[in-house]
Design brief:
This protein has 270 residues and is α/β, with parallel strands linked by helices. The chain has one domain (8-268): Acetylglutamate kinase-like (Carbamate kinase). 40% of the residues lie in helices and 23% in strands. It contains ten helices and 14 strands. It has helices at 16-19, 30-46, 59-69, 78-104, 114-117, 131-138, 162-173, 203-206, 225-238, 254-259; strands at 8-14, 50-56, 109-111, 118-121, 124-128, 142-146, 148-152, 156-160, 177-182, 187-188, 197-198, 200-201, 243-248, 266-268. Strand 10 (187-188) and strand 11 (197-198) form a beta hairpin. Helix 3 (59-69) runs antiparallel to helix 4 (78-104) and helix 7 packs parallel to helix 9. The radius of gyration is 18 Å and the shape is globular.
């Protein structure tokens, strides 16, 4: 008897820079979101054993009010709580654009709002009931999470990025790959000149290049490229066999290729 091939679990993050115009507030890139949905649907049809969890950033929706109110640093007075609610609304609005595109493509998507289920403590996930997300993955559904406002025991309220959420989820679910799709081709050794792309980063090589990593050139309250690389290195050291790929989702077919195991952009591993 031939056994079924083993199930592979992959996390895919759609960066806010990819799915929104981060230089124009509250502007989704509808055609890009729809194309990505179609590439995901194609990949899942061709590889039914693949299990996927998708996350997306807030882009030009959540980051604008988040910066205005300083939400990530803490929420205490009435003005800041009104800002907290505004960030929630904008993050949820973008999530609806994403889920609608996925549903239109026939993907069995179900969205999980982190605000309703995550408790933070000083900007870190303290607790999260993962049974619903785990059940969705096991049922062959496509769960989506997204950067969101979170109630925090010390700060009152805060914001957790998709990478923050993926960090907690990865340590519990142990995916084989985490794919971080943005508009940059990967991690540049010479940003912002962007002429020398780093194809691999390991814990051993990171220290020699850390000074070359810069943040985003648009409004981003949850950290730039250096933060993403540091979080990724910590994860690959903590989870055996994990690889993290930072790449551009701008080129048609790139999402599909990355989901199929190709190493575009910058691969982070031990």
């Amino acid at each position: 008897m031939v056994s079924n091939p083993p199930t592979q679990l992959v996390f895919l993050k759609l960066g806010g820079s990819l799915i929104t115009d981060k230089l124009r507030p509250y502007t989704p890139r509808i055609e890009v979101i729809q194309r990505i949905a179609e590439e995901i649907a194609q990949t899942l049809r061709e590889n039914p054993q693949l299990r996927l969890l998708v996350g997306h950033g807030a882009g030009s929706f959540g980051h604008v009010p988040a910066k205005k109110y300083g939400t990530r640093n803490g929420v205490h007075d009435r003005r800041e709580w009104l800002g907290f609610a505004e960030v929630w609304k904008e993050a949820a609005t973008l999530n609806r654009y994403v889920t609608d595109a996925f549903i239109k493509t026939g993907l069995p998507v179900i969205s999980f709002s982190p605000c309703a289920s995550v408790t933070a403590n000083d900007g870190q996930v303290e607790s999260w009931d993962l049974y619903p997300i785990r059940s969705a993955i096991e049922a062959g559904l496509l769960p989506i999470v997204f950067g969101d406002v979170i109630f925090d025991r010390q700060r009152g309220g805060t914001i957790l990025s998709t990478e923050d959420l993926f960090d907690y989820l990865a340590r519990n679910f142990h995916p084989q790959r985490i794919l971080l799709a943005g508009i940059e081709k990967g991690v540049w050794r010479d940003y912002p000149q962007c002429a020398a792309l780093l194809t691999t980063i390991t814990p051993a090589t990171f220290q020699s290049m850390v000074l070359h990593l810069e943040g985003s050139n648009a409004t981003d309250v949850t950290g730039g490229m250096a933060s993403k690389v540091r979080q990724s290195l910590a994860l690959v050291e903590a989870i055996a066999g994990l690889e993290v790929l930072i790449f551009s989702g701008e080129e048609p077919g790139a999402i599909c290729s990355a989901l199929q195991g190709e190493n575009l952009g910058t691969l982070i591993h031990v």
